[in-house]
Design a protein that fits this description.
Blueprint lengths: L10 H54 L7 E4 L9 E13 L2 E14 L8 E10 L3
Antiparallel strand pairs: 1-2, 2-3, 3-4
Length: 134
């Protein structure tokens, strides 16, 4: 009696192994891309905060040194803040403290880069209060 030798049986496990390895490779590439995007967005977030802080500092200087408490828009062009825009608003109130009159300035700065709704859009808002009291 002759026995038949089966051929091609190892093809099924080999194909299964190839499919599993390909799926693992796709997952690894996807995770790497997500991790890279997370790092980029964290960096952009820090830059947006620095841009908003710059807007607050600029408005505080204008209010305290130049006596101008007005709204303005800044387009930043230097170094790491290139491409950011900052809208600043300033409001002031005066208060009598004994014989002195002090002015309190409330400064709001909104910094952004990119277009809203796009993956590279980032923004930060900061509100700060400064006074001319000595």
């Amino acid at each position: 009696m002759q026995t038949k030798v089966q051929k091609g049986f190892s093809l099924v496990p080999a194909l299964f192994l190839l499919v599993v390895l390909a799926a693992l490779g796709i997952v690894a590439v996807r995770l790497s891309a997500v991790q890279q995007q997370t790092v980029v967005l964290a960096m952009q977030s820090a830059r947006a905060y620095a841009a908003a802080r710059s807007g607050v500092d600029w408005s505080a200087y204008q209010a305290l040194v130049n006596g101008s408490c007005a709204s303005s828009t800044l387009s930043l062009t230097e170094a790491g803040l290139d491409g950011f825009s900052v809208d600043t608003t300033c409001s002031s109130t005066t208060h009598a403290e004994g014989p002195n009159t002090v002015t309190v300035f409330v400064i709001d700065a909104f910094a952004w880069s990119g277009n809203y709704g796009t993956p590279d859009y980032v923004s930060r808002r900061i509100r700060s209060t400064v006074t001319d009291a000595t």
